[in-house]
Amino acid sequence: MASNSDLEDLVNFLKSPSPQLRKAAVDIVQGLTGSQDGIHNLSPRAHDFFPPLLHLLGDKQEIAQLAAEALVNLSSDWKLSQGLVAAGAVEKVMGFLGKPGYSCNKLLVMLLVNITQLESEAEHLLQEGDEKVTGLHVSRLVRFFVRSSGSNEVDEYEHVGAILVNITRLETGRKLLLNASKGLFRQILPQIDSRSVVRRQGVAGAVRNCCFEAETELPSLLLASQFLWPALLLPLAGKRAYNKEDTSKMPLELATPLSYEREPEMDPKVRVEAAEAIYLIALQEGGRRALWAVNGPRILQVGYEDEEDPKVMEAYERVGALLVEGSGVQAQGSPEP
Fold first, then answer.
1. Fewer CB within 10 A of the end CB, N or C, for the chain?
2. Closest to 105 measured CA to CA, from 156, 174, 178
3. What is the pLDDT of residue 332?
4. Would you state the pLDDT for residue 152?
5. C-alpha closest to that of 229 among 183, 291, 315
6. Burial grade of 268 (CB within 10 A; 0-12, 13-18, 19 or more)
7. According to the model, what pLDDT value does residue 220 have?
8. What's the first-to-final CA gap in the chain, in angstroms?
9. Domain 1-89 = CATH 1.10.3720.10
10. Is the CB of residue 296 less than 8 Å from the CB of residue 253?
11. Burial (CB count within 10 angstroms: exposed 0-12, middle 13-18, buried 19+), residue 51
12. Per-domain residue ranges for the chain?
């Protein structure tokens, strides 16, 4: 176990004007944070390590990379995560994220994923309390998320989807995403078709969480229906080509892809969350009408026939029971955000 003086020396070396000393020190810190025992050893002095580690995010690439890895490791401990936010981690990360030539974007996004797992820290990212800046951080993250679209070999921003899941556990986050004037909800929906399962899971989870606001925000949800129904129904549609009788009752954004055999959604988590989102929308009479209007029940029927995963089948069945019973069904057993 490192002594108190050893830890103090490490902190001082992290601040050294010598790049060689900074590199050696951050290498040791990164190694220590790679295990629970190492994190435990650092914990008593963690608040001393946070400022220099955050500062090193702006150092040369090899040093910044090690500092970012150490911070991600430390943020896996929720108590340390709170200390990181208090040390200004969110502001530091958002200051570096997306800078031209910056090489640690993926790690910084993962740091924000860890930080926003706590409600109070998610509120910090949402910038609650100041109407002038509320949502600016999230808007930037969504912009990075949709512009990159996983087109590069290294998908630096795929884990932004997990951040969106975390913040939409809060009512403020859901309402921010559904704010029509910002257009964030509509922007993320096409990512449900990404090659990245991480992106698809993130979007499906965030959309599902947003649907908990269906009672008061149904118009905002349906305003994006051209993108919303494909995002929710196509993962549940199976792989079979639908006949003309079925597709003639669908809008083009559903009829066109469903006219042909296609690759099905292989991830059961995405399918469950899509079904749960539809269930939450269908709890509202206007939501059920909108679902029938796009021939959604037929899509669910066909998809259910091919489904083999028990949890996904259960999610289909809950929607089916709701559609059969109509407004007489109570929202018992509803999922939680």
1. N
2. 156
3. 46
4. 61
5. 291
6. middle
7. 95
8. 41
9. no
10. no
11. middle
12. 1-89
pLDDT digits (tens, 9 = 90+) for 256-289: 999 999 999 999 999 999 999 999 999 999 999 9
User: How is residue 319 written in tokens?
Assistant: 């929607």
User: Three-state SS across 249-318?
Assistant: CCCHHHHHHHCCCCCCCCCHHHHHHHHHHHHHHHCCHHHHHHHHHCCHHHHHHHHHHHCCCHHHHHHHHH
Residue 324 has pLDDT above 50, yes or no: yes
Output the CA torsion 249→252→254→255 (10° steps).
Answer: 60
Q: CA of 241: how far to CAs of 48, 255, 268, 303, in Å?
A: 60, 10, 21, 11
Structural tokens at position 173: 């986050």
Going by C-alpha positions, the residue among 303, 223, 224 that lies closest to residue 258 is 303
What one-character DSSP code corresponds to residue 242?
P
What is the residue-averaged pLDDT of the chain? 93
Tokens of 251: 């809008």
Question: pLDDT digit string (tens) for 93-152?
Answer: 999 999 999 999 999 999 999 999 999 999 999 998 777 888 999 999 999 999 886 556
Q: What is the mean pLDDT of residues 42-53?
A: 92
User: How many whole angstroms separate alpha carbon 289 and alpha carbon 296?
Assistant: 10
* Amino acid 129: pLDDT: 75
Two structure tokens written together for 325? 């019973």
| Residue 251: φ, ψ to 5° | -70, 160
Give 255-261 contacts, CB < 8 A, sequence gap 24+.
257/230, 258/234, 258/299
